[in-house]
Design brief:
alpha+beta; Protein Transport Mog1p, Chain A; 60s Ribosomal Protein L30, Chain: A; 2 domains; 7-stranded antiparallel sheet; 4-stranded mixed sheet; Outer membrane protein OmpA; OmpA-like; Bact_OuterMem_StrucFunc; cell outer membrane; OmpA-like_sf
Length: about 300
């Protein structure tokens, strides 16, 4: 559930001292997660052949925001960095875009996939700070008029509680549970478990949005899932490899999502109002773009559950 807040506070109740981070611009929280035991890879230097890093285990808390009003990533990051410093956190490593190592750096670090988090490979900043045994990392980027902040805290002592907000955010309304899938398809299982899935049999050539087969098992499974869950709405998100310009790839990725939507509504009878489309170009790769196999993997459409209201 997306909470629209005029001013957001992120509180990490750590065994050391709570870190209060106030978003410097109007913001919307798009993702929140706490895992009682997990691991987080933290970059402590720029990518140069390999990524200098430490992997810390413990309670993981992550939140992601979309912000409006910022013209640069530094306008977002600088006040957050200052707040952490004032709260007793020590900076271990900070970098921006090329200094970080560009694509190679972004590919090595832990990033929540689109549409929750977007990373512009030409405009992002990273910060890693430490207090006692606890670590916090910030990843900041922009796309168009929107800014994005991913904040991840890992506490080896396991004393981190789920992040709380001190604003007057309304409690999320109750929603019907998602029905168990009637098929054993990977798509249905992933949607139930994770809320998103790759439609892996929708294959595209570089620069193309054409779908030419008569049927696709992933769309058939998605249609069955949507029929089983009539209150669920979805977004189809198109992706590209890194060949070509950013603007051209954004347009192609949107057309790929729309091609899948056309089949889902026309051939499989799903109501158009339940499906939105987005295109994010090459900004959310799941494989390297310097091999043909990686580029082929990155040319894809993903489905994301947007609501069950």
């Amino acid at each position: 559930m997306i909470l629209r807040l005029g001013l957001l506070l992120l509180i990490f109740p750590l065994g050391v001292q709570a870190a209060d981070l106030t978003m410097p611009f109007p913001a919307t929280i798009t993702f929140t997660e706490t895992r009682a035991l997990g691991s987080h890879r933290i970059a402590i230097g720029p990518f140069d052949e390999t990524l200098p890093s430490v992997t810390v285990e413990g309670t993981i808390t992550r939140q992601i925001w979309q912000l409006t009003g910022a013209e640069t990533t530094l306008q977002i990051l600088a006040p957050l960095r200052e707040q952490l410093r004032d709260d007793g956190w020590t900076q271990v490593f900070a970098c921006s875009t090329r200094v970080c190592g560009g694509f190679d750096f972004r590919f090595e670090i832990d990033v929540t996939p689109a549409p929750q988090m977007f990373v512009d490979l030409a405009d992002f900043s990273y910060l890693a700070v430490q207090k006692s045994d606890a670590w916090t990392t910030l990843l900041v980027s922009r796309s168009g008029d929107l800014g994005y902040v991913q904040a991840t805290t890992v506490d080896p002592d396991g004393t981190v509680e789920p992040a709380k907000s001190t604003s007057n955010a309304a409690s999320p309304p109750s929603t019907p549970p998602i029905a168990p899938p009637t098929t054993t398809s990977d798509v249905a299982q992933a949607l139930v478990a994770e809320g998103h899935a790759v439609l892996s049999d929708l294959a595209f050539a570089t620069g193309s949005s054409d779908l030419t087969q008569d049927s696709y098992s992933s769309l058939e499974s998605l249609a069955a899932f949507l029929r089983d869950n009539p209150s669920t709405t979805i977004a189809l998100v198109g992706h590209t490899d890194a060949v070509g310009s950013a603007a051209g790839n954004i347009a192609i990725s949107r057309r790929r999502a729309e091609s899948a939507r056309t089949l889902l509504t026309g051939r499989y009878g799903i109501a158009p109002g339940r499906i939105e489309t987005q295109g994010v170009g090459f900004y959310a790769p799941i494989a390297r773009n310097d091999t043909e196999a990686g580029r082929r993997t990155n040319r894809r459409v993903e489905v994301v559950i947007t609501s069950t209201d």
